[in-house]
Amino acid sequence: MVVVFMMINYADKSVLGLAAVPLMDELAIDKSTYGLVSSAFYTLFSVSGLVVGLLSSRWSTRTLLLVMAALWAVAQLPALAASVPALIAARLLLGAAEGPAASMSMHALYAWFPPGRRGMPSALQIGGAALGTAVSAPVLTWLIVNLGWRSAFIALAITSATWCLVWYAVGKDGPYGSAAGPVEVAVEADEAPPAARKAEVRDGARPPGVVSSPPLSRLLLSGTVVGGVLSAFGSHWALAMSSAWLPV
Questions:
Q1: Considering only CA atoms, which of 130, 9, 14, 20 is closest in space to residue 71?
Q2: Phi, psi at 211, each rounded to 5°
Q3: What letters, b where the CB count within 10 A reaches 16 and e where it falls short, cover 168-190?
Q4: Which of 57, 68, 123, 184 is the most buried (most CB within 10 A)?
């Protein structure tokens, strides 16, 4: 279900670019206006990702994914009005709903696997994103050419709604996730850092082998997080350019 979730996610990103030429012709808009519509997707993308990331420690990941996918379905409908304001509103909503998608779907996967067995699920999740682009491009293009550009948006709305129904029936939070409370990482007693083991002996507040995570501010300023942010900046720059302008 998470792989299909990511496939739909990337299909939603690409549909505007694939439909751009007939859409621009029908609405008589120039490339500058189209660029404005396309970039609206990223206005709330990062903000919503941060907000939902903070909420994920208290809200069920199952519920978050369900709400996001439902909003994806709703976000396709304003395009049917065929006006620039409607398209901008649709892309704003879609960007806000897709901003947390990659991180929250990975979070959902991690809740089903212990730390040492998360490599393969992560690869499948990332593969779903690539597969979504590979599958959606020819299918959506066929719909646009044969049934009109609106049909592609309708198809994605139906697909997202269908995913929601199935996810509501079968989706669950895994045993390795935590819906609320401070995060603690369980490790083998002999694998815990020496400083942590000394602290456990000193205060006796935590069970052996359980190490509390550092403050969020310290995590966000770590080299790993900063490097990840920089790499994501470059990858999304390329993604935005390719999905918006290469089809055009």
A1: 9
A2: -115, 125
A3: eeebebeeebeeeeeeeeeeeee
A4: 68
| pLDDT 10s digits, 157-171 | 999 999 999 999 988
Measured over the CA atoms of residue 186, residue 192, residue 195 and residue 199, the dihedral's sign is positive
Give the angle subtended at the CA of 70 by the CAs of 65 and 71, to the nearest 5°.
100
**pLDDT tens track for 128-138:** 777 877 888 89
Cα distances from 134 to residues 128, 137, 198, in angstroms, run 10, 6, 52
pTM over 0.85: no
- Virtual CA dihedral for 15, 50, 174, 131, nearest 10 degrees? 20
